[in-house]
Structure formats: C-alpha cells, structure tokens
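[Primary structure, fold]
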Amino acid sequence: MKTPPRLPSEKEQKLIDGVQVRPIRSDERARFMRLLERHHYLGELKPVGEQVLYVAAGKNGGWRALLVFCAAANHLRYRDQWIGWTDEQRRRRLALVANNARYLVLPGYAVPNMATRVMKLALARVSDDWQQRYRHPLAAVESFVDPAKFQGTVYKAGGWVELGLTRG
C-alpha cells in the first residue's frame, strides 16, 4: 500500500524555503561528480556537448541537491512527434532542447516538497544560464524516468508532460 503524502514539518519547511540553485563553479566539479557516483543510482555522468550543472544549497552553503542539464537525446520518437518537427527541423533545432540527465537530492534532504522546489528553481533559470553560456536559449527540457524504480512525482508535480516510453 502506498504511503499517503505528508506536509513538511516546520523545520523541513525552513530547509525548503532557504534553498537556492546556482551553477557549480569549475573548482566544484570533482566534488559534484563524486557525489553523483556515490549517491545516484546511475552513478556519475560524463555529459558531452552543452551542459549546465547545478547545486541546490542552503543558506549556510551546504549542498542539498545536484542537477545536470546537458545536450538532448538526438532521436526521441515521442518528443519529435510531440514537437512536430521534420528531420531537418530537428537537426537545426535540437540544441534548443536540454536533457535533465541527473537529479539527485542528497541523503538527509529528501523531505516533502524539497525536490519539487529545487526543480522549479533550476527550471526558472536554466534557459538564461544556457543563453549566457552558449548564446542561445532553451525552448524545452526533457528527462527520463525509469518506471520500474520511480513514479516521476517531481516531474508530474512540476507540470511536465509524459510523452511515452523509450526503447532504451
């Protein structure tokens, strides 16, 4: 039986309210990747192409969560159908889509609403950060959820659209 959702405690709400999301600094990359390797079920990621890595930190600077946005999957049937672009349009415009390839709430910070809040903060800035770094904005962000392991609650709560299952 599924556990009913609960509201965060007052202490947990303070953690949530104090969280801020920012791109990592170059000197933080090794730590970031070590934490992914240690705590994410898929381990470390070696993103290629365009990418922005974020850390969600508390008021004291302590890390709460990690997010990786990188180049989108080249061919994704349901995404391509949903957007409605031709092969040529996909070739020209794929850079306008980013993939949320990793999302990790660090141990001890998986409190109700934390993951949703962090994702909202990251999405609010990712296109501007992408524009600053790569000289073009983002029009969409995609992600993948393993339905054998997760329900995609954070994405559903954030209003993401489920497009279909991949073959991978």
